[in-house]
Description:
By secondary structure, the chain is mostly helical. It has one domain (3-84). Helices cover 91% and strands 0% of the residues. Role in flagellar biosynthesis.
Amino acid sequence: xxxxxxxxxxxxxxxxxxxxxxxxxxxxxxxxxxxxxxxxxxxxxxxxxxxxxxxxxxxxxxxxxxxxxxxxxxxxxxxxxxxxxxxxx
Length: 89
């Protein structure tokens, strides 16, 4: 196994992690920004008003994108598992 191959595998895994986290976090950030603008406009400073919509959006993203996320992780695992003999020898 060459160092270039190891770096490629690690970069694929890190890229997958970034992609999955972005799918979960970006919608929450957008909703949080909208709620923050609403709070600034109305001067309502309630913490639960900020937390609850982000939580709901994140849970909805887990429900809708969960299948895709699990499939991506499984594809990477299958690739690694099936190629272990070739990597070692």
